[in-house]
């Protein structure tokens, strides 16, 4: 059975840019940016809300 020329599993099919694995020189900075965004998203809201409700520095950083 012959494969269709537009079959995605055909070896001669080009890889779509979304499915490509980036080179390490692009992958590492993107991973670091992702980690920074995750950290900022978790840490920033309690600091802003704590300041808005009038907590002092010790109250915003103390763990229960």
TrEMBL record:
Organism encoding this protein: Streptomyces lydicamycinicus
Residue stretches of biased makeup (Basic and acidic residues): 1-10
The protein's name: Putative transporter
Region Disordered, annotated ranges: 1-22
């Amino acid at each position: 059975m012959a494969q269709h020329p537009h079959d995605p599993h055909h070896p001669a099919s080009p890889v779509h840019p979304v499915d490509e694995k980036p080179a390490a020189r692009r992958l590492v900075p993107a991973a670091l940016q992702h980690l920074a965004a995750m950290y900022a998203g978790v840490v920033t809201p309690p600091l802003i809300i704590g300041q808005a409700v009038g907590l002092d520095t010790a109250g915003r950083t103390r763990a229960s």
